[in-house]
Amino acid sequence: MDRVTWWAVLSAVCAPLVLIGGSTTAASLQGAAYNPVRQTISVLASDGDTGYWALSTTLIALGLCHMTTACGLRAAAPAGRLALGAGGVAAIVLVLFPAPKSGGSFAHGSVVAVGFSLLALWPVLACARAPGAPLGTTTPWGLRTAPSLTASALMVAGAAWFLVELQLRGAAGIAERVLTAGQALWPVVVVISCLLAPRSA
Predict the structure, then answer these.
(1) Are the CB atoms for 68 and 8 separated by under 8 Å?
(2) Three-state DSSP class for 199?
(3) How far is CA 171 from CA 157, 160, 166, in A?
(4) Residue 6, number of CB atoms within 10 A of its CB
(5) Residue 188's closest CA among 67, 3, 11, 6?
(6) Which of helix, strand or coil describes residue 193?
(7) How far is Cα 40 from Cα 30, in angstroms, rounded to an integer?
(8) Helix (H) or strand (E) holding 143
(9) Tens of pLDDT along 108-127?
(10) Which of 2, 5, 99, 200 has its CA 20 to 30 A from that of 56?
């Protein structure tokens, strides 16, 4: 497993499970007061809310998963690994700037924007061949240019959809969940492609 370490595979697989399980738990703790269609996931981490501890723990665990995956994804270019790891750091920093119960927060919004941007860019940044990559290997599908560009484009489109829904006070919760799920699942696709990619003769 010279392209990706076993612990990076584990962390990549855990990321979407942590995200879905943690946000679902936080929403359950919040009860009927929370509207998952219109309200964002961040609302669940507002100070004093019953779901605060669950979502805060989720964000920390998710960030650690992305950072671990970035460290062990040896086949990816360094810039992509750095962006993925920094996106994980942004998820952890988000705990320090919880969303207010009502209205907006510049600090929270800024960290969210940075985190989403890093996680949207990392597929494109990771697709170049990493210096020192073993000879006699083929590029894994998840690190090729076309799939990487497609993944990044879909994430940018998801972010645009989320912003539109947020401004219209529409289904922002659904848009955010689709976007965050996609960003959590792409590392899984990449590590699996690294495991399955054959060596060239």
Answers:
(1) yes
(2) strand
(3) 15, 13, 8
(4) 11
(5) 11
(6) helix
(7) 13
(8) none
(9) 889 999 999 999 999 999 98
(10) 5
Say which residues have a Cβ less than 8 Å from residue 120's Cβ, sequence separation at least 6.
152, 155, 156, 159, 183
pLDDT digit string (tens) for 3-16?
Answer: 899 999 999 999 99
Structure tokens at 46: 């507002």
> Rounded to an integer, what distance in angstroms lies between the CA atom of residue 178 and that of residue 194?
25
State both tokens at 61: 């665990």
DSSP label at residue 1: -
Letter string b/e over residues 164-174, b meaning 16 or more CB atoms within 10 A of that residue's CB: ebbeeeebbbe
Buried b (16+ CB within 10 A) or exposed e, 41-76: bbbbbbeebebbebbbbbbbbbbbbbbbbbbbbbbb
Answering whether pTM is above 0.85, one says: yes
Residue position matching structure tokens 């940075």 = 114
**Residues facing 137 on adjacent strands:** 199
Residue 107 CB neighbours (<10 A): 14
pLDDT digits (tens, 9 = 90+) for 183-196: 999 999 999 999 99
Alpha helices in the chain (DSSP H): 6-30, 52-72, 78-93, 106-126, 145-168, 172-196
Cα 19 from Cα 101, distance rounded (Å): 21
